[in-house]
Each structure stands twice: as C-alpha cells, then as structure tokens.
Amino acid sequence: MIQLENVSKRYLRKTALTDITFTVPPGSITGIIGENGSGKSTLLKLMAGLVRPSHGTVSFHSKKVTRQIANQVAYLSERELAYSFFTIGEMMNWQASQFVDFDHTLAHEILDFMKLDPKTTIKHLSKGNQARVKILLTLARKAPVILMDEPLSGLDPMVRDSIIKGLISFVDFDRQTLVITTHEVDEMEPLLDQIIAIRQGALIEQIAVEDLRSREGVGIREWMNQTYTKATNH
Amino acid sequence: MAVQYDQSSPIYLQLAEKIRRRILRHELDPGDKMPSVRDMAVQSNVNPNTVQRTYSELERMGIVESRRGQGTFITENEERLEQLRDEMRQSQIASFVEGMNEMGFTSKEILSGLTHYLEQHEEASTHDTT
C-alpha cells in the first residue's frame, strides 16, 4: 500500500537515506527503529509527502506521494503544538477546518478517554497532556494512513500507557495503516506487526515481530543490541 | 500497568497460554463468550492482529469456537477441556523435571522433595486459614 522503491535522500552535504526499498501492508502497524540520526524521521516525512526523495519513488496505492497526500495522511510531528494560545476545543475546530476527515464524535470519545477538558488552553497543559492532545488531533482523523514521529518520546510511563491504549482503542485497523518511529521498543513491541530497522540511512531489516521472536528467540531490544553492535565491529 | 510478555517467544502464543490458564482456573467457563478482538487487545496491550492470531490458534486447538456474526466462545466440549487440563499439567511437570534433571537430581530425590514441599505447603495454608 505504501511503497518505497530505491529511495535515497541527500541534503546539501549529507546523505540521509540510501537506496531504501520496502512496502507497508494495509491494516498493519509498522515500527521504524534505529539509532538517533539514522534517518527515521526523514523516512516518515518522505511518506507524508513533506520531503521529496532525491532518488527513487514513494507511492501510496501506486500513486506517487506528493504534498497533496496530506488529506490522506494524519501526520503527528515530533514538534510541539503550534497554536498554544488556543483551547483544546479551538484546536479541534481548527483541525476540523483543515481536514474534512476529522470526526467530531470520535474526537470527543478520545477526549473522554484521555480525560481532557476542551476548555483548557494548550499552553496551560502539562507536557503529558499536550502529547495526549497531539494524539487526539491525529487519531480523530479518519485518514487511511497515520504516521507518528516518536509519539512516546520524553513522556512518563502513565502517559505512554494511555497513548498506547489510545492507539489500540481508536485506530480502525480495517481502514487505517499505522507507521510509528520509536525508541521505546519494549513498550511498542506488543503493538507492532513489523519493524523496519535502519542504520546510518540504510535499511538493515524488515521483519514481522512474531517471526523475529520465533526465528531468533529474541525481542526487538535484544535483536537491536546484537545487530547494531555487530555492525559497529565491522 | 502494562502486561509483560517475555522476549523469547511469539506474543500470540503467550497470550494463548494466558487464556488457557484462565480456562483452567474457571475464570472462563465452557460456552462463555470471549471479549471482542478489540477489547482483548486493549486489555492485553497488544495489536488487534495479534489477538486475531491468538483466537485462530485457540480455535485450531479446539479450545474456542467462532460463531459467524456472534463472536468467539469457549468450547462446550468438556472432553476437550479435560484433555487441556491434562496437557497443561504434563507440560508443567515436564519443564519442572527437566530443570531438576539439569541440576542432577534423581527421580527419587525429586519425588521425596516434592512430597516434603507439598506437606509443608499444605500445613502452612491450613495455618493461614485457621
């Protein structure tokens, strides 16, 4: 469904990604893992149409991904919310004005689930609740593709747990496909169908998590320890 | 909080094992309806696709049945559930014995140790309740 073919991305003097090819099947959850600076976020931005490949093609349902894909992709960025002077309710309305697939009923269900008050101003929210608002704004869109850049990063365990539960509860797997970049592999692992592991801009493995466990008898973290250390010794 | 899974085996099998144990403990009875895939996924903090796989595995083993449009139910085949009890007892005993053998204990030592342990344990639990 989402397909990358021989994708490379070069910025002026730096190569971010080299010759990446993979497919994300519909209705699945894919985790993109790798060290800091390995190119995870760039990969996600390519799929969101926010960055153009220097080489190769990124396609969605066999159509080339461009900036226009934004109406089919709910993208959660690593950055903070832009309009901190808005209340949560105003933020929801703004999101609805930008994206026709925003579902108010679903948004209110998530609001209740996350125990958020729509009258609160964004800048008065704790870091954890700001993260919850970002999740809400993303999941309330009935977009066929959801891309999340480090949704758990820097959050306490309670918030991380509520975000994971939120994902399981509100993503419609019959209609939506999820791709997440993450460092929190232990917590994300039970959620992931497959992982895409990258290292210094190159793809080193694409594998189903359950296959990893039955084939190697290890989870993601242990596998990463083994694989990434080995690669360093070369 | 988050349910823990160990790293060494597939999550869908671990989840299937947890469900089989709940059946033996009668937390789930013959004919009971299993939670929907989504609810089970939320309860267990796993991907709904994994739960689907767990349910298929349990169905393949004859422990649950899916009824079209109604959901998944624990089998009412008592014979199969009795057999499940046996299987699970056997496999637990097998891994215990394997561990004891690795440490060099003989069958006799295992038996006497187990008998002694159970006697003490029973004594302790009767004291607790009185």
TrEMBL record, chain A:
Signal peptide annotation: none
Key word Electron transport present: no
Annotated keywords: ATP-binding, Nucleotide-binding
The ABC transporter domain, residue ranges: 2-225
Pfam families, alphabetized: ABC_tran
GO molecular function term, any single one: ATP hydrolysis activity
Protein name from the UniProt record: ABC-2 type transport system ATP-binding protein
UniProtKB/TrEMBL annotation, chain B:
Signal peptide segment: none
Classification via Pfam families: GntR
Keyword Transcription: yes
Alphabetized GO MF terms: DNA binding; DNA-binding transcription factor activity
CDD domains: WHTH_GntR
Compositionally biased spans, kind Polar residues: 42-51
Boundaries of every HTH gntR-type domain copy: 9-77
Keyword annotations: DNA-binding, Transcription, Transcription regulation
PROSITE patterns: HTH_GNTR
Region feature Disordered, mapped onto this chain: 30-51
Protein name in the entry: GntR family transcriptional regulator
